Amino acid sequence: MHLEQVxxxxxxxxxxxxxPIPWYYWAxxxxxxxxxxxxxxxxxxxxxxxxxxxYLSIAAAGFLVxxxxxxxxxxxxxxxxFALSGILHCYLLIKIRIIVQQxxxxxxx
Length: 109
Hints:
Elements: H1 23-40, H2 47-85, H3 87-108
């Protein structure tokens, strides 16, 4: 027993907070354990399943490369438009600033 634990006989109510573990935690934990066991037994899988997993991994890698490629393409297009816009881009920023200021002045009236 801990040295600082003291039991006093008072009129206070004793409360026991019971917070059970939900069933879906048990189900999810069981699925994770079974999934890890299945991955460890990968060399024993039939050849058709191993080939399917291979194609699935190639498709997932292709998807990731496509997403990264879209990001790079976006920045290339942005840089091209930024470089080609030159003075026009500054003009647009100044024009937007003037419009915002006019709207703010209109709101003050």
